[in-house]
UniProtKB/TrEMBL annotation:
Belongs to the UDP-galactopyranose/dTDP-fucopyranose mutase family. GO terms for molecular function: flavin adenine dinucleotide binding; UDP-galactopyranose mutase activity. Pfam families: GLF, NAD_binding_8. The keyword Isomerase applies. It comes from Pararhodobacter oceanensis. This is UDP-galactopyranose mutase.
Length: 390
């Protein structure tokens, strides 16, 4: 994709492609430093994949592109988001249905005792699980080996095998071991999903949060606006938070993503008693059901909105959700990164721009860091502020 020569006038406007958290935070930081920003988004709303909207039938605040829980260990990022929205306390707890029974995830003392029909104390459970673990695996080469090594075959097959197969569309032994390293294993009855000290939900949703971040006189927002090179006319710099391969019109091929499909349904009262119920069995085609009203326990609604979630490979035109980043994608990513590095006055940030899974707090931190460097360098920045290949 071509772009006109950059406008080098002092404080010339900056074009920000994408009004998700990356684009909004970056624009806000630049605007506060005196740089006018034009933020565009192809969608009819701001907030990117964090978008929330009230269901017209039930009044429930729905996480349109899947459940989003804000959690961070970074006090500065927490201070940043709470500057723009009132956050309410929300502690995420996930349940999973496996072979006709309901358990708590991540695997904790209750899960272990319930699953094995035991009454073990913490040290006993740790010792017991060590007897289940496959100690013949010393250096796990893939997800399956990692699971077998940590929790043994019974827990692996009950909780991870089917779910992972559905989520990623391939056998767990084809996935890197690193995916499982993110799941904690607890020998206490603490069943909260995240360990971070700062957790919560923006009271009015993530779209209101993003709107508040963008509400600055130096920021102009154009929705329903897909990038075309003429929009960069007179711009000093482009910050691109869309897909990296999309910037190049997919000239080298498409980076692989998983996409999600949500099957909405409503019910009266409380459908499942929790926000997220995973379905671990391979013969149930969906991965989980999200009941959105549980994300706002301070609200009361007679009816309820739920999403059944299905995962599949993204085709052209689908919304890209999770970057796959297996061997083939890594090789293609390398080629796109090399091409992007030849550009001037264009920087790629955010989850799509760097083809990485990023939690919201990391997204915000990286956008602020990119803005700080752009300002420190007098209005220039390399194509990548972080290394997407790391
Ligand atoms: C299912 C799911 C659940 C998640 N849950 C959590 C969670 O619980 N907690 C958490 O911290 N994080 C969660 N995340 C991660 C979170 O969604 C991201 O951190 C966040 O959305 C990243 O923001 P972004 O601005 O980089 O990208 P996006 O939100 O994707 O925004 C990019 C924007 O760019 C626009 N765009 C793209 N191309 C163009 C173009 N050519 N022209 C104009 N506009 C364009 C898009 O329309 C989009 O609005 C989850 C992600 C997924 C997929």
């Amino acid at each position: 994709m071509t772009r006109p020569a950059p406008n080098t006038a002092p404080n010339a406007p900056v074009l920000v492609v994408g009004a998700g958290l990356s684009g909004a935070v970056l624009a806000r930081e630049l605007a506060e430093a005196g740089w006018p920003c034009h933020v565009i988004d192809a969608r009819p709303h701001v907030g990117g994949n964090c978008h929330t909207a009230r269901d017209p039938e039930t009044g429930v605040m729905v996480h349109t592109y899947g459940p989003h829980i804000f959690h961070t260990g970074d006090a500065a990022t927490w201070a940043y988001v709470t500057r723009f929205a009132r956050f309410r306390r929300y502690t995420h707890r996930v349940k999973t249905t496996s072979r006709g029974a309901v358990y708590g995830l991540p695997i904790n003392l209750h899960t272990i005792n319930q699953f094995y029909g035991k009454t073990l104390r913490p040290t006993e459970a740790e010792a017991f699980l060590a007897t289940q673990a496959d100690t013949s695996i010393t250096a796990p080469r893939n997800f399956e080996e990692q699971a077998l090594r940590f929790v043994g075959r019974d827990l692996y097959e009950a909780f991870f095998k089917g779910y992972t197969q559905k989520q990623w569309g391939c056998a767990p032994r084809e996935l890197p071991a690193a995916i499982l390293q993110r799941l904690p294993l607890r020998f206490t009855y603490d069943d909260s999903y995240f360990n971070h000290p700062y957790q919560g939900m923006p009271e009015d949703g993530y779209t209101a949060l993003t709107q508040a971040i963008l509400a600055h006189p130096a920021i102009r927002v154009s929705l329903n606006t897909t990038y075309t090179p003429d929009l960069a006319d007179g711009a000093r710099h482009i910050f691109w938070t869309g897909a990296l391969d999309g910037y190049f019109d997919y000239a080298l091929g498409r980076l692989g993503y998983r996409t999600l499909e949500f099957e909405r349904f409503t019910a009266t009262g409380d459908y499942q008693g929790c926000a997220v119920m995973n379905y671990a069995d391979a013969d149930i085609p969906y991965t989980r059901i999200t009941e959105h009203k549980h994300f706002a326990p301070w609200e009361r609604h007679a009816k309820t909105t739920c999403y059944r979630e299905y995962s599949r490979a993204a085709a052209p035109g689908d919304i890209p959700f999770y970057p796959i980043r297996l061997v083939a994608e890594q090789a293609l990513l390398k080629r796109y990164v090399a091409r992007a590095k030849t550009l001037e006055n264009v920087s790629f940030i955010g989850r799509l721009g760097t083809y990485r899974y990023l939690d919201m707090d990391v997204t915000i931190r990286e956008a602020r860091a990119a803005a700080a460097q752009f300002l420190a360098q007098g209005g220039t920045l390399a194509p990548f502020h972080i290394n997407p290949l790391a």
